[in-house]
Design goal:
It is a single chain. This protein has 255 residues and is α/β, with parallel strands linked by helices. The chain has a single domain, classed as NAD(P)-binding Rossmann-like Domain (Rossmann fold). It has eight helices and seven strands; from the N terminus they run βαβαβαβαβαβαααβ. The chain has a seven-stranded parallel sheet with strand order 3-2-1-4-5-6-7, sandwiched between helices. α1 packs across α8, α3 runs parallel beside α4 and α4 runs parallel beside α5. The protein is globular. It binds NADP nicotinamide-adenine-dinucleotide phosphate (NAP). NADP nicotinamide-adenine-dinucleotide phosphate binds next to α1, β5 and α6.
Length: 255
């Protein structure tokens, strides 16, 4: 029970395939009380269908990270219900479909702003609102991808957003460390989810990973979730400001 008596907020659950859903299940398994945020009523229906798999009903709160009031209301609801927060999972990303294919050079100003707002600035907004509730410190983890540091085909503007997210993780970690709040990134290999379906030729990404990763296979979503659990839990108490790769040894391989 790594998360006994802890309270966690998990963002980014769209459906049962979401990485965030597997993380929520791992946190629940280890004893954490849970708040799960969802974007709108359409998404709420999907979550209602799966929450019964958890050991106890979570607090379900709407949150659109593009609106500061929505983020503040979400954290206020967590505060009202639990009075504290020990871990926060950021698993949110969005870019227009046309910006996840073709040339990065052609990304529009609007598309760029949207991708960085939803996928990177959202971490700032959530962390700022969560900070007063993290009275005993805790662990914050944000999901990222190798496209932040390498030019991965079709990842385009999302790679730039992930680079901003990862840099933000280091700044947040440096500022919040004195309060015992740790902020880390978890760079996962490709996993079939709704968001991944938006990337053109995603199956080719999966195949390349399977061929080139040291483990010669793709990851299970549970492997990603267990690493996130570790980063949320006191077992990672000495780790902050880091990007941890859960990619089966893809990034470290040479030619
Ligand atoms: P997913 O299930 O589609 O999750 C993405 C989430 O972002 C969805 O819940 C989506 O909500 C939410 N979102 C989008 N716009 C939002 C907004 N304005 N406000 C609040 N939430 C919003 O896909 P996933 O693959 O699990 O993605 C989770 C995280 O893992 C993302 O950061 C992604 O970049 C990262 N990641 C994924 C992979 C992969 O291969 N799948 C690899 C590395 C990192 P709706 O669906 O309800 O719109």
């Amino acid at each position: 029970m790594l998360m006994q008596d802890k309270v966690s907020l998990v963002t980014g659950v769209a459906n049962h395939r979401s990485i965030a859903w597997s993380i929520a299940r791992a946190l629940d398994r280890e004893g954490s009380r849970l708040a799960i945020s969802y974007l709108g009523e359409r998404e709420r229906e999907g979550i209602d269908r799966i929450v019964g798999e958890l050991s106890r009903p979570p607090l379900l709160v709407p949150c659109d990270v593009t609106r500061s009031e929505s983020v503040d209301e979400t954290l206020a609801a967590v505060g009202n219900e639990f009075g504290r927060l020990d871990s926060l999972v950021h698993a949110i990303a969005f870019a227009r479909r046309e910006d996840l294919e073709g040339r990065y050079t052609d990304t529009s100003r609007d598309g760029y702003h949207l991708a960085l707002d939803v996928s990177a600035y959202s971490l700032n907004a959530l962390v700022r609102a969560a900070e007063p509730l993290m009275i005993d410190g805790g662990g914050i983890v944000a999901l990222t991808f190798l496209g932040s540091e390498r030019a991965c085909r079709n990842y385009n503007v999302m790679g730039v957003a992930k680079a901003a997210l990862e840099s933000g993780i280091r700044y947040l970690a440096s500022e919040l460390g004195a309060k015992g709040i740790r902020v880390n990134g978890l760079s996962a290999g490709p996993v079939r989810t709704l968001a991944a379906r938006g990337i053109k030729d995603f199956p080719a990404m999966l195949r390349a990973h399977e061929e080139r990763a040291a483990l010669r296979r793709n990851l299970t979503v549970e492997e990603v979730a267990n690493a996130a659990l570790f980063l949320c839990s006191p077992w990672s108490s000495g780790i902050t400001g880091e990007i941890i790769y859960v990619d089966g040894g893809y990034r470290m391989m040479g030619g």
